[in-house]
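Please, is this right?
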Amino acid sequence: MKTIEAYRIKEEGYHPFLIREGWQVAQLNYVDTYEIKNIDKLDIHHHTDEVFILLKGKAVLIGARFIENSPVFEMELMKPNITYNVPQNTWHNIAMEEGSEVIIIEKSNTHLTDFEFHYLTAEEREALIELVTQLLNVV
């Protein structure tokens, strides 16, 4: 029996790898779904905060609140080794550049049961792409 477990996820996409009673750790590795030009929705979790930690690459954490049924975006260019929290009931997504890796910590099985989507209109997508692209080009 090992006293210390080690994990390294290399495959693209979202991979919950450590699920325990009440919480889970996942790794999100770049996949083209998270390329800014491909983001078509926001999601929300009603029963958990969601923590993000950038391991490598470039990523922008996207938050949004709705005013008159339209999203108002708030963004954070993620820095490695900084812990970012998206509180429960907050619309969000993440834009990633190729090669990026992010750790995500949240309530267990959130990816199976606790999510709702808002699909972006063409105008909302255009605004989001412009804002994220500007932020990514700052560095």
Q: What stands out?
A: Residues 53 and 83 are 5 Å apart (CA to CA). The mean pLDDT is 94. The first strand starts at residue 13 and ends at 20. The beta strands are 13-20, 23-29, 41-44, 50-56, 59-67, 70-77, 83-86, 91-96, 101-106, 116-119.
